[in-house]
Amino acid sequence: MLTPLTVILACLVWAAALFGVALWGERNASRLVRIWPVVYTLSLAVHCTAWTYYGAVAQAVRWDFFSPPTYLGIVLLLVFGLRFLTRLGRLTHEHNSASLADLVTSRFGKDRRLGIAITAVALLGMVPYIALQLKAVALSFTLLIGGDPNQQPAYLDASLWVALVMAAFTMLFGTRRASATEHNRGIVLALGFESLLKLTALLAVGAFVVWGTHDGFADLSQRAQALPPGNYDGSFYALMGLGAIAMFTLPHQFHVGIVELRQESDLRVARWLFPLYLLLIALPVLPIAWAGQLDIGGKVPPDLYVLALPMASGQKGLALLTFLGGMSAATGMAILSALTLSIMLANHWISPSFVRGATRSTSGSDLRPWVLANRRFGIVMVFVLSWLYSQAMSGAKALADFGILSFSALAQLAPAVVLAVYRPRLPSGAVLAGIVLGSLVWVWLMLVPTAMQAGLVPQFDPGNGLRWLTPENFLGLGGMHSVARGVLVSLLVNVATVFLVAHFTPIKPDAARGGIAMSALENVAQRFLPGNYMRKLAEARGQDSTADEATVAAVERELAAVVGVSSARLLIDAAWRGERAPLDTVAELVGEATQALRFNQQVLEAALQNMSQG
């Protein structure tokens, strides 16, 4: 066993190393040009969170397969869906979209309701996923120092303190200033560095269990013949599909893979290099699962075999390295997700409501503390909800259960993303209806059974006449695995609703916004956009007193990257109607704080550079 002080000191050293890597990346950008496609590819491995680091072993125990099914889905997407990802990245940059909600909203008529719904689904899906990170960190820390998490009261639960520390560091370094560049080399390099640590730690544990505790792979595989065979049920294939979908529906994955995509050629490199990374990080999973079942058995959950095996053999150094790898996998994802969710909440929930209801405001008032306080509240809310969920769902059998819930919930955004790329002329109301109904079906088929298992919802039997409506026998599909049934039915309802509603909904053309007075347009732009952009706008203006439609669209595009799509449209509408008082209120609201949304990537770097690993 290791002392808590030793573990905490190791975490501080790791945090300092991460800060140094990110700082070096910012100051030596020219040295990264040639290897940037490799760095970008490694940053995609933020997908390999605690679910992969710990939960993949539990999946190997369940299915006796060398790779988690989500990896196979990612490989299939990169092989067959490269054109889709390339086009998705191109559209994201064309619209200056800072999040998934921004992109979908901008493609479907800038309907504010879509942004609200997508943010709600993202929050609903990411809370279980962040809870997974908290649970994984708490369990691994307790195991490393020799404690027993099952005998600790709630106020002494390590996951609570981990959540508070993460929230404090995210607020401290994620909401302290508003300045950045569009593409942040430091944060991407730091994520790539984390990916190398995760890979190194898992390969080291795999090599140890194969050659350190057994006489090679042949000996281990021969002994594993006595273990129960894997059962390839419907959940295996459902997770393959969810793995592919997660690459463009998870908020933090969308940010790293799409928003941070600098050149389309980087994606072509990732097409072959990222599958190679996934193959390498999956290599030790099955040997660790075999060795854990043979040497440890039921003493610890399969999720913790990767840490328990070095501990059982007295390899404290290897155990500490393994813990740091899991810590970086969990904390990096959790902090990045909390920040992206807080930005989505600010863009699509808070700012538009304030803008729409604003009528008067004292000129020159500084509302920056108000907006930053809302962002901090959003960060706290995300971590508190995640911790409460981890406590409420403590009856879940494995970390993989948390990940399945998250991936299946966020899968409800996949039809909207695909349609935003290929069918942007569909009515926004149809897309919204699909998301809402699909999510409701997901709640009934996926979330309610999990809550029943945890004892939060009582079991019920409606009788033979209505039993076909229960989650276990929905529509007579009781023979399917619950995961496959929930994912398939909810997505079918989602897609069917979109096209059914679209069939009966006329398409409304976008209203032209030409003819706006240049003075009103400049009054909007100068409060939110850089000075060099304002100079270009003044030069383009010439002697014209009104702005044409192209100029208005260009300004709105720039504003959307600062305040979000919905608020940008409200600003343009206010300028078009000549409503000076609401426009002044809007300017005061977003003038300082929306720069934090425009330049959120530097904020993300600050969070990762300075986050605590303990």
Number-wise, the strands total: 2
Largest sheet, spatial ordering of strands = 1-2
By DSSP (H or I, 4+ residues per run), the number of helices equals 27
| Rg for CA atoms | 25 Å
Order of helices and strands: HHHHHHHHHHHHHHHHHHHHHEHHEHHHH
Rounded mean pLDDT is 81
Q: Approximately what portion of the residues adopt beta-strand conformation? A: under 5%
For the largest beta-sheet, the strand count, sense and barrel status come to:
2 strands, antiparallel
Percent of residues in helical segments? over 70%
Structural class: mainly alpha
Gross geometry: globular
Cα separation of the termini: 17 Å
Query: Poorly predicted ranges (pLDDT <50, ≥5 residues)?
Result: 177-181, 357-368, 579-614
Question: Which helices and strands appear, and what pairs or packs with what?
Answer:
Elements: H1 4-27, H2 36-43, H3 50-63, H4 69-80, H5 82-94, H6 100-107, H7 112-145, H8 158-174, H9 185-212, H10 217-223, H11 234-249, H12 251-259, H13 264-282, H14 285-295, H15 305-312, H16 316-357, H17 368-392, H18 399-410, H19 414-422, H20 428-453, H21 482-503, E1 516-517, H22 518-525, H23 531-541, E2 546-547, H24 549-563, H25 565-577, H26 580-598, H27 600-610
Antiparallel strand pairs: 1-2
Helix pairs in contact: 1-9, 1-27, 2-9, 2-13, 3-14, 3-18, 4-11, 4-13, 5-13, 6-7, 6-19, 7-8, 7-16, 7-17, 7-18, 7-20, 8-16, 8-17, 8-27, 9-14, 9-15, 9-16, 9-27, 10-14, 11-12, 11-18, 11-21, 14-15, 15-16, 16-17, 16-25, 16-26, 16-27, 17-26, 20-21, 24-25
